[in-house]
Design brief:
By secondary structure, this protein is of the alpha/beta class. It has a single domain, classed as Rossmann fold (3-Layer(aba) Sandwich). It is 43% helix and 18% strand. It is built from eight helices and eight strands. Strands 1, 2, 3, 4, 5, 6, 7 and 8 form an eight-stranded mixed β-sheet that branches. Helix 6 links the parallel strand 6 and strand 7. Helix 2 packs across helix 7. The chain is globular and about 45 Å long. The chain starts with a strand and ends with a helix. The C terminus is likely disordered. Bound molecules: flavin mononucleotide. The site of flavin mononucleotide has 18 residues, from helix 2, strand 4 and strand 6.
Length: 217
């Protein structure tokens, strides 16, 4: 089960991290949990872009999400992992979601994790309100990539988030040139720009009030 703080804040609780930084925090969630998951690698690359633009990032990968019980709205009990995810999303300034396309839609693993945003329903910033959200999809074909990306952006809208202008859909089908290469310049650039857009939005519009940052110190 993996959730990782990156770069500037490597250890410590979320509260400690917030005391240590004025940088926007971008939370990434997604992947398939499959060893070598393309979706997870794409998510990590997008978070790299967010960090390059000045964010502190945290990654909830597929293995972490697989530890979460299926979200059931009438069940009040929360596991430690669920509390950790919800608390990170509550204080995030921006979010990146990455899903494989399963049967033409967002995977159950990723969608169930997103359903936990229901726990933010009564917050001052409900759901994804005020946060930029980068959307990344991988699929073994262009059609599923397109419809799943469209569905993911619609889910973000439903949750009051702001999908970034650039989303990324990756076709993971092997081509004559071999398996998809996430470091290939076009793909790497797109993922990096997506991460930068999330950070830039968070810096311009989505930051927590400065007073909150001051009292946290
Ligand atoms: C259960 C399942 C359903 C899938 N459904 C589709 C689909 O409808 N269309 C498609 O293009 N690819 C589909 N795929 C392929 C995955 O979207 C694709 O391989 C993806 O990149 C896998 O992500 P990963 O490397 O992170 O595991 C499916 C894969 C699985 C395991």
């Amino acid at each position: 089960m993996t959730s990782r703080w990156h770069q500037r804040v490597r250890t410590g609780t979320e509260a400690e991290a917030r005391q240590m930084t004025d940088e926007p925090v971008v939370v990434g969630l997604g992947g398939s949990g499959r060893p070598g998951s393309t979706t997870e690698r794409a998510l990590a690359a997008a978070l790299d872009g967010a960090r390059r633009a000045g964010a502190t990032t945290r990654l909830f990968d597929g293995a972490f999400l697989a530890e979460l019980p299926l979200f059931l709205p009438w069940q009040q009990a929360r596991t430690a992992a669920a509390v950790e995810l919800v608390s990170a999303l509550r204080t995030a300034d921006g979010v990146i979601v990455a899903t494989p396309s399963y049967h033409g839609g967002v995977s159950a693993l990723v969608k169930s994790a997103m359903d936990y945003l229901e726990d933010l329903r009564g917050d001052d910033r409900p759901y994804l309100d005020g946060r930029a959200v980068g959307c990344v999809v991988t699929a073994a074909g262009a059609q599923a990539g397109g419809v799943t990306l469209s569905a993911l952006r619609t889910i973000v809208h439903a949750l009051r988030g702001w999908p970034t202008p650039l989303s990324v859909s990756l076709n993971t089908t092997r081509s004559a040139a071999g398996p998809i290469n996430l470091t290939e310049s076009g793909t790497a650039t797109q993922l990096s720009i997506l991460g930068e857009q999330v950070t830039r939005f968070a810096t311009a519009f989505g930051r927590r009030p400065q007073a909150e940052l001051r009292t946290a110190r």
